[in-house]
Amino acid sequence: MIASLTGTVQSTGEGQCVLEVGGVGYLVACSRKTLDRLTAREGMQRLLVEARFAAETGLTLYGFLDAAEREAFRALNEVKNVAAKTALAVLSTLSPEQLARVIAAKDRKALSAAKGVGPTTANRIIDEPAMQKWAVGRATPEEGGEATLAAPLPAQGVEADAVSALSNLGLKRPEAERAVARAKALLGEGAELNALITLALRESAR
């Protein structure tokens, strides 16, 4: 069973990428957040992989840049009638940390905002005991029970430059700070200014 792949990204498409490993191109389904992080980087990439077989589609590889996203994907897949495609849709909208807070707070509206996730599916995910168990220790509901995202810390260094660039492009500073904070979370430490600005612009448009 394939556990991970390391190679170069040859192309990306809607919900998937082609990762070339040793001259072989693997088609890997990914969340939008993972695809954004892949396209913002250069060189060799390592994806954690989950292989799933379905009668209608055959074998499909699902890729994740970190273990937290893979664990969230596995937890979602344990919910009855929640397919892998739906799990990726959720993770395209919410990071694992955000998902845990949404579930802990039982914020059905926030969960149903994910593409292809209606109220029925959102209720099924939130009411699933296994999902509630998964969320324990990963998140604590905000005061009042709402899973609102924490305000970003004041931008410094490269982040401050990115916020300034977005403000010069017409974004209000609070909006620019939130977009840069989301982009920084996706790219991780050491993100370069151009990559940070590019991804923050994408995030601000969503």
Automatic annotation (TrEMBL):
DNA helicase Holliday junction RuvA type domain boundaries: 1-63
GO molecular function terms listed in the Swiss-Prot or TrEMBL record: ATP binding; four-way junction DNA binding; four-way junction helicase activity; hydrolase activity
InterPro entries, A to Z: DNA_helicase_Holl-junc_RuvA_I, NA-bd_OB-fold, RuvA, RuvA_2-like, RuvA_C, RuvA_C_sf
Cellular component aspect of the GO annotation: cytoplasm; Holliday junction helicase complex; Holliday junction resolvase complex
This protein's record includes keyword Cell inner membrane: no
Superkingdom of origin: Bacteria
Domain Holliday junction DNA helicase RuvA C-terminal residues, every copy: 158-203
UniProt record, GO biological process: DNA recombination; DNA repair
Region annotated Domain III, chain positions: 153-206
Compartments it resides in: Cytoplasm
Record key words, sorted: ATP-binding, Cytoplasm, DNA damage, DNA recombination, DNA repair, DNA-binding, Helicase, Hydrolase, Nucleotide-binding
Family the UniProt entry places it in: Belongs to the RuvA family.
Domain notes from UniProt: Has three domains with a flexible linker between the domains II and III and assumes an 'L' shape. Domain III is highly mobile and contacts RuvB.
Protein's job: The RuvA-RuvB-RuvC complex processes Holliday junction (HJ) DNA during genetic recombination and DNA repair, while the RuvA-RuvB complex plays an important role in the rescue of blocked DNA replication forks via replication fork reversal (RFR). RuvA specifically binds to HJ cruciform DNA, conferring on it an open structure. The RuvB hexamer acts as an ATP-dependent pump, pulling dsDNA into and through the RuvAB complex. HJ branch migration allows RuvC to scan DNA until it finds its consensus sequence, where it cleaves and resolves the cruciform DNA.
Assembly information from the UniProt record: Homotetramer. Forms an RuvA(8)-RuvB(12)-Holliday junction (HJ) complex. HJ DNA is sandwiched between 2 RuvA tetramers; dsDNA enters through RuvA and exits via RuvB. An RuvB hexamer assembles on each DNA strand where it exits the tetramer. Each RuvB hexamer is contacted by two RuvA subunits (via domain III) on 2 adjacent RuvB subunits; this complex drives branch migration. In the full resolvosome a probable DNA-RuvA(4)-RuvB(12)-RuvC(2) complex forms which resolves the HJ.
Protein name in the entry: Holliday junction branch migration complex subunit RuvA
Protein source organism: Roseococcus suduntuyensis
